[in-house]
């Protein structure tokens, strides 16, 4: 019997060589050169069936293998009917139409589980930053100005809070959101968690993180002293002007999900009006550009989309992408399917919004 074929997009395997040896022994791996991965040439190659019929697509690294741009129906429709799974690095999937893949009978798997630890660690830093005004203190110390130093030393504590006395709101309690909750509870004993998600967690899970479920987003916003966005981007803004007015007065916002979830102009206004007291951002609406008014505000701590950026995450991305393909093609079950609920229901059904 011929081996199943896998189209490998991006750089060669760098870390998990033993696993790749098993992968290559089971599959016929085709890795198109960079020139064939640019969108026009990639489309031509698919139309010409240059790689024949293949069964899976593997993208083990986030920094390479995406030269063809967004995976929309224009691209997905050109795939051979034999393709049944796409396994990619990365936690988000705003670049791929998972609903469309489901209509074509293709399972999509991401790498969120591999980045959970790294993202959660960075989120704890941002949570601590917004509660303790660390951006203000950090900038003042680096300014070399005794006046700025004295100002931060004297005044930043007046609005700072101990996280353990506060309520943390989490929007999206998936692999990353749950890891954030667990780490926050361990780091800040006494912190209460309220969350919103499509599916409520089991009572024992809620009990382990002292969490309360909210049926609505508004229920989280009205209770939380700090709201963490840990939900995938489904094509629409979640935190806008009307939503910001539902935050607890002086609430804080941390976004480690996707920049497009937040209306940054509305966020600036909420900060200037004092409705929001501090912001932590790993992601931005127009990356690699950041909002200039947010960047210069001493209440806003910014990162450069590095929350998941560790060697450990890259090793995990690579391993999980291969394990998803191995599991699906050899045993009929992927490890981290994103659109499984769409594959099991009526094809073409609208993706349910988390919010």
UniProtKB/TrEMBL annotation:
GO cellular component: cytosol
Keyword Oxidoreductase annotated: yes
InterPro entries named in the record: D-isomer_2-hydroxyacid_DH (IPR050223), D-isomer_2_OHA_DH_cat_dom (IPR006139), D-isomer_DH_CS (IPR029753), D-isomer_DH_NAD-bd (IPR006140), NAD(P)-bd_dom_sf (IPR036291)
Keyword Oxidoreductase: yes
Domain D-isomer specific 2-hydroxyacid dehydrogenase catalytic as annotated: residue spans: 71-339
Signal peptide stretch: none
Assigned keywords, A-Z: Oxidoreductase
Matches recorded under Pfam families: 2-Hacid_dh, 2-Hacid_dh_C
A GO term, aspect molecular function: glyoxylate reductase (NADPH) activity
Coiled-coil spans in chain: none
Record domain D-isomer specific 2-hydroxyacid dehydrogenase NAD-binding: where: 126-307
SUPFAM superfamilies found in the cross-reference section: Formate/glycerate dehydrogenase catalytic domain-like (SSF52283), NAD(P)-binding Rossmann-fold domains (SSF51735)
UniProt record similarity statement: Belongs to the D-isomer specific 2-hydroxyacid dehydrogenase family.
PANTHER family xref list: 2-HYDROXYACID DEHYDROGENASE-RELATED, D-ISOMER SPECIFIC 2-HYDROXYACID DEHYDROGENASE NAD-BINDING DOMAIN-CONTAINING PROTEIN-RELATED
This protein's name: NAD(P)-binding protein
């Amino acid at each position: 019997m011929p081996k199943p074929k896998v189209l490998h997009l991006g750089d060669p395997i760098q870390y998990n060589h033993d696993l790749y040896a098993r992968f290559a022994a089971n599959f016929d791996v085709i890795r198109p050169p960079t020139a064939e991965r640019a969108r026009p040439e990639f489309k031509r190659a698919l139309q010409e069936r240059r790689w024949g019929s293949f069964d899976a697509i593997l993208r083990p690294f986030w920094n390479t293998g995406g030269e063809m741009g967004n995976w929309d129906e224009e691209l997905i429709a050109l795939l051979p009917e034999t393709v049944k799974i796409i396994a990619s690095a990365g936690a988000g999937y705003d670049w791929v139409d998972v609903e469309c893949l489901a209509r074509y009978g293709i399972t999509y798997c991401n790498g969120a589980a591999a980045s959970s630890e790294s993202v959660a660690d960075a989120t704890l830093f941002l949570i601590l930053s917004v509660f303790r005004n660390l951006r203000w203190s950090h900038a003042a110390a680096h300014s070399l100005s005794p006046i700025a130093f004295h100002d931060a030393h004297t005044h930043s504590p007046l609005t700072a809070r101990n996280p353990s006395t506060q309520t943390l709101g989490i929007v999206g309690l998936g692999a990353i959101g749950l890891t954030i909750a667990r780490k926050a509870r361990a780091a800040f004993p006494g912190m209460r968690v309220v969350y919103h998600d499509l599916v409520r967690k089991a009572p024992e899970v809620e009990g382990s993180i002292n969490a309360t479920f909210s049926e609505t987003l508004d229920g989280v916003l009205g209770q939380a002293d700090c709201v963490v966005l840990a939900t995938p981007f489904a094509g629409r803004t979640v935190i806008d002007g009307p939503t910001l007015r539902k935050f607890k007065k002086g609430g804080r916002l941390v976004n480690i999900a996707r920049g497009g979830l937040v209306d940054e102009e509305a966020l600036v206004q909420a900060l200037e009006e004092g409705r929001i007291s501090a912001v932590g951002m790993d992601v931005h609406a127009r990356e690699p550009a950041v909002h200039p008014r947010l960047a210069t505000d001493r209440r806003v701590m910014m990162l450069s989309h590095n929350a998941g950026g560790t060697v450990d995450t890259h090793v995990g991305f690579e391993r999980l992408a291969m394990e998803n393909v191995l599991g699906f093609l050899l045993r009929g079950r992927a490890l981290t399917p994103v659109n499984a609920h769409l594959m099991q229901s009526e094809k073409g059904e609208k993706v349910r919004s988390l919010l």
